[in-house]
Amino acid sequence: MAQKKTTPAKQKVAGAAAAPAAEKKTTAAAKKAAPVAEKTAPAAQKATAAEKTAVTEKAEPAKKPVAAEKTAPAAKKPAAAEKAAPAAKKPAAAEKAVPAGKKPAAAEKTETAAKKPAAAEKAKPTAKKAAAAEKAEPVASKTTVKKTKPAAKKAAPAAEAEKPAKSADKPAAPVTEAPKPAEEKAAPAPAEVKPEAVESAPAEPVEPAQTEEVQPVEQAPEEPHYDTPRRSVAFIGSECHPFVKTGGLGDVMYALPRELVKQNCDVRVILPRYACIPQKYQDKMIYRGEFYMDLGKTGRNYYVGIMEYVWDGVVYDFIDNQEFFSAGNPYISLVDDIPKYCFFSKAALAALNYMNWIPDVIHCHDWQAALVPVYLHTFFQDTPVGHAKTVLTIHNLRFQGIYNIPTIQYWTGLPDEVFNMGALKQDYEDANMLKGGLAYADRITTVSYTYAQEIQTPEYGEKLDAHLRYHNYKLRGIVNGIDYGMWNPATDPALAVNYDITNVLDHKMENKRALQEELGLVQDEGKFVIGLISRLTNQKGLDLVNAIVPDLMDGNTQVVVLGTGDKQYEDTFRYYENAYRGMFCACIQYDESRAHRIYAGADALLVPSRFEPCGLTQLNAMHYGTLPIVRETGGLKDTVQPYNVFDGEGNGFTFDRYDAGLLLDAVNRAKTEYFVNRYHWDEVVQRDMAKDVSWANSARQYKDLYLELTPW
Ligand code: ADP
Ligand code: GLC
């Protein structure tokens, strides 16, 4: 398995000289040098902790003001640096935090009991205190500043762990005090989210229309009735449609919070404020506050700005720091990404404290946010946010955030205790961010039931199968859905012709012709059009596709590929386009609206993945009346029932072993139904469009999980 590690020789420190291994969803353009690592970690090229500290101290005066000036968009607070970030480490915290041998059930029970009263207070959302938050003292600020300096100077982790002992009383104060502000300003309740939402989301046209008419009282929007208690949830992740998306994670981060809002959740999504977020969204963000935060052993305080955008009941908080987030792509290489996400995960927690918005549950996603549970059980344990429960969702186990221990220690400052084999440590000298997160999270989910089983086996476990088996009491699979607002052929503005289940058979043909015209294919609605919309990586089964293309091209079949990724696949598809002009189209690009037109215009969609945690393209396809041809793995297995020629049941065409011959066989079975038994084919088209692939059911399972964790 292609694991993203660096060569040992280059792993010394702070990422400066490390070899960038293939990173998830890294685009070709992103393979450039790593500005952040170069800028921020010159010190890291020295091997010893002492050397590192010396150099970073030098760096501090030069960098800090620059970052602060550049990024602080509004009134700067001279004292901001003093406010600094998160909590002080408690000496005992590290010990407690070590999860090995933890008895889950018992531990949970005690925690729950202890936290009941506080949690009940927290349950009320405090999202609305924009003004207050600007002024707000970060709860743990004083303690942090005190902690930061000595820790940075003497890097020895043991000493670091002892230090807070002297000031053990101090961290204690903010902890007990912390809930008070929350109580006082308390929970203006869900309704109060609305005014702010209207203000900052210009897209919402409702309010002006209503005010003109002076509606009688009974016209006021009805309070929705919920059948489950309200919970507040902070989503923390590295991408989210429409701000930034490289794959399905972006879709989930968009759709699931929206659905959870409908299911009585108060949701805040915390994201990096990447410079590549389109300007139209940047313009809608409102300055929410800023503070400074220490980071690992860098010896520096880093600017953390919070920019906010409220949209359809979901609050998006973007963590601003130009040093880390100024690249043109979210993912670059591990050299950049490791420090970036060490910073991001910590800043996200500190921001929650700063905003005084303490969620019941923190739901983090993939390795980029996997340090959140680790930070929470160490630095933040005795701060307000430390009471939150954590859920960590694995969207793709292949990417884990692995680097050598000194580097991760340098960027996180986490105590030695967490670098044990039960948590972050892997093999002899590596730290694995995802592995650590899995150890500390209260619950682990992944995006399908089958993948949850698969990852506990050596074949799919990406070297974490034993770790996952150890933690499987808290692991569960919840299959993804798709957002019916974003994916709806009846209203989709990208399509040539809109359609629904009643007229799909006619209108799909029109979309097919329009697609053929758009892509320069032979315009003939009698051709069988196969789409493939994918990141072009080893995961997606493209070797199988490449092996069978010549067999597919029988004169009646057209193939449309949309994707970017590994050069070898891009080049092969370009070659085929050239070889089969008018019948094969290789769109080597990322194009959201073209993707919609392919879903609508193709007859079938290929997803022959080597592994697939869930997969969304087969869901989109079915919802657009396009039959999936998939390998029976992960979420593909859970969402596509094989077509049975004898009873006519099923949603698509499937094959099991990773084998080109079996893929070809599945495609040929599909073609037979299409050309010979069109009546049956059309039935499946309509059945697939009627199938429930929405988020409603799955969001409900997440809500149940949150309630299990917070049973008050
Ligand atoms: P993964 O997250 O592994 O990439 P998923 O199937 O979960 O796979 O999600 C892929 C998402 O990205 C889908 O919404 C799909 O439509 C979209 N997508 C993938 N490649 C492209 C592309 N080149 N252009 C537009 N959308 C794409
Ligand atoms: C990952 C997986 C994909 C899944 C997506 C959203 O990128 O590769 O299967 O659908 O995340 O969960």
Provide a descriptive summary of the structure in words.
- The chain is of the alpha/beta class.
- The chain has 3 domains: 2-216, no CATH class; 239-263 and 335-477, 3-Layer(aba) Sandwich (Rossmann fold); 504-693, Rossmann fold.
- It contains 30 helices and 18 strands.
- It has a 9-stranded mixed sheet, sandwiched between helices.
- It is globular, with a radius of gyration of 26 Å.
- It binds adenosine-5'-diphosphate and alpha-D-glucopyranose.
- Residues 247-249, 252, 395-396, 447, 480, 612-616, 635 line the site of alpha-D-glucopyranose.
Describe the structure concisely.
This protein is an alpha/beta fold and 712 residues long. The protein is built from 30 helices and 18 strands.
The average pLDDT value, as a whole number, equals 78
Share of β-strand residues: 5-15%
Number of spatially distinct domains: 3
Beta strand count: 18
Widest sheet, order of strands: 3-4-5-2-1-6-7-11-12
Q: How far is the first residue's CA from the last residue's CA?
A: 44 Å
Q: Calculate Rg over CA atoms.
A: 26 Å
Low-confidence stretches: 1-216
Bound molecules: adenosine-5'-diphosphate, alpha-D-glucopyranose
Counting helices, strands and paired strands, the structural category is alpha/beta
